[in-house]
Design a protein that fits this description.
alpha/beta; Rossmann fold; DNA polymerase, domain 1; 2 domains; seven-stranded mixed beta sheet; 11% strand; globular
Length: 256
């Protein structure tokens, strides 16, 4: 069964954006006169909390950095300034699509398969990335975009997937999600959507139980993916035909 829709996460999945987010956070802290710096080890831990504003709040509560009390009422302003810095980096071309993403999106568009976004990041961040990587008509390629502030609970809650499925008017089993993190996988599977995971630089140490497949990236003819778990061991690229096989394995491959 070829899926009726492909639903993509954004950060770490469409592009390796998390390092740009970290850079934008640190530049914003300096601009606001805050003596904070998130190194890569700390940011890996902070990414366990979905959403930029939520991540800031968690940092203040869990780490009690200098000037935390004064900054507690400025989270929205800090996040808005960070978003502006991040989108400027993206618009300058600092976040190319991950291997195989553009190819699969193009294949889906040619075959009339719906495309959607389900993310915890802001709509402004999504729009900037799609314009920078897919051109000015990049947004038009997607039937619907579910962003972080559109739902009550962010990933790992399944809310954003529920919103996207409702807008697509499709059952979860007719779609395939693409995620890079354990919380993203939990959100998609919580909504019943089969999920392909492509771990990113900040999530490559996470477990991905219940994923349809775990591969290093989506693959290109001259750059096949490395198979990590689940379906796809005999393939080198995630294609619509491959997804159809993975969703409908022959009887001797169906788990008892």
């Amino acid at each position: 069964m070829i899926p009726a829709a492909l639903i993509f996460d954004v950060d770490g999945t469409l592009a390796e954006t998390e390092e740009l987010h970290r850079q934008a956070f640190n530049e914003t802290f300096a601009a606001f006169g805050l003596p904070w710096f998130w190194d890569r080890a700390l940011y890996r831990k902070l990414l366990e909390v979905a959403g930029g504003k939520e991540r800031l709040g968690h940092y203040l509560d869990a780490h009690d950095p200098p000037a935390a009390a004064a900054a507690a009422g400025r989270i929205a302003a800090l996040h808005a300034a960070k978003t502006a810095r991040y989108t400027a980096l993206v618009e300058a071309g600092a976040a190319p699509l991950r291997t195989g993403v553009g190819r699969l999106i193009g294949e889906a568009r040619r075959q009339g398969i719906a495309l959607a976004i389900a993310t915890t990041t802001s709509l402004a961040n999504v729009e900037a990335l799609l314009r920078a990587t897919l051109g000015q008509d990049g947004l038009a390629a997607f039937a619907t975009i579910g962003a972080g502030d559109m739902v009550a609970a962010k990933k790992p809650a399944p809310d954003v997937y529920g919103l996207v499925l409702e807008r697509l008017a499709l059952p979860a089993g007719r779609c395939v999600a693409f995620e890079d993190s354990a919380i993203g996988l939990a959100a998609a599977r919580g909504a019943g959507v089969p999920t392909v995971v492509t771990p990113s630089v900040y999530t490559d140490d996470q477990p991905f139980p219940a994923a349809l497949a775990v591969v290093s990236h989506l693959g290109e003819p001259r750059d096949p993916y490395c198979h990590l778990a689940g379906a796809g061991a005999a393939d080198g690229m995630v294609t619509l035909a491959a997804l159809a096989r993975w969703l409908d394995p022959p009887p001797d491959r169906v788990a008892p």
